[in-house]
Write a structure and sequence with these properties.
alpha/beta, binds benzoic acid, eight-stranded mixed sheet, 274 residues, 13 helices
Length: 274
């Protein structure tokens, strides 16, 4: 009989078992996200336990992607609105979960007339800049006492990969594109929260070493998530860039015949001051 995978089952699964088993692509689209990146929302399942949604609560899911975690929150009895800036993601979420409300909306620029009891975000806020605008929107969207629960890349996330990309770009004599990522420390993000009437009640920064499948796992990761850096290289140098990234990353990230990405996660819970 099939059983629902537990958080431990999911954590034991190789990242690339889930996302990269048969094909590779550098396209960011909703189908790819669901077919090959489902680990993103599967890792977020136990974050919902921190949110502990109650029946009748009104909850905002920020950066909801294709809506799988939104659906899990709805299943707890809450009324949830999912927002994402990707039209593709929202179209897929609406198609899959037609009874749930989803909206295309930017995390740095959203407004709802009716406030929320809680705001939730999994694996999205590291793509959101400027972060202070997102925090201002989140705080404004909550009722006094409203809860915020989020997980995203924290300080030092993929630092070895970033260093390898910087070294590879130097080898090729090309500049490295500015990073699209935001990986704050606990004090940095807590300060931002406090500046916007949010009291941080729990914060943790933890390692999540993430296995990458196959001998070219690191190159595939850069194709998928480091597109900003790869696309900024002249076309003729892109393959060499990937090869040089692997050479530089290998001493730190290739262990016992496997690539392991150096993920670090920031988990944060806060309450809006009355
Ligand atoms: C992350 O989930 O930590 C991540 C995703 C994409 C790029 C960098 C980091």
């Amino acid at each position: 009989m099939l059983r629902k995978p537990t958080a431990t089952d999911i954590a034991k699964q190789s990242f690339w078992d889930v996302i990269m088993s048969t094909e590779t692509s550098n396209a960011w689209d909703a189908k790819l996200y669901d077919d090959k990146h489902s680990f993103v929302w599967k890792f977020g399942a136990d974050l919902i336990e921190l949110l502990s949604p109650k029946s009748g609560e009104r909850i905002l899911d920020i950066g909801c992607g294709t809506g799988h975690l939104t659906k899990q929150i709805v299943d707890c009895g809450a009324t949830v609105i999912g927002i994402d800036r990707s039209a593709d993601m929202i179209a897929k979420a609406k198609a899959e979960f037609p009874k749930i409300e989803f909206e295309i909306s930017d995390a740095t620029d959203f407004h709802f007339d009716q406030p929320f009891d809680a705001a939730f975000s999994n694996a999205a806020l590291h793509w959101v800049k400027p972060p202070e605008r997102a925090v201002a929107c989140i705080s404004r969207a909550l009722v006094p006492g409203g809860k915020f629960v989020a997980e995203f890349g924290g300080k030092g996330n993929v630092a070895q990969i970033e260093q390898a990309m910087a070294a590879a770009s130097r080898d090729l004599g090309e500049p490295l594109a500015p990073s699209p990522w935001y990986f704050p420390s606990i004090p940095e993000y807590s300060t931002l929260m406090e500046q916007h009437r949010m009291e941080v009640t729990f914060a943790t920064l933890f390692e999540r070493p993430t296995p990458l499948e196959g001998p070219d796992g690191i190159q595939q990761w850069v194709r998928m998530f480091g597109q900003t850096f790869l696309a900024a290289m002249p076309q003729a140098k892109q393959e060499e860039f990937l090869e040089r990234v692997a050479v530089h990353a290998k001493p730190a990230l290739f262990q016992d015949g496997k690539w392991i990405a150096d993920y670090r996660r920031l988990r944060i819970v806060a309450r809006k001051r009355a």
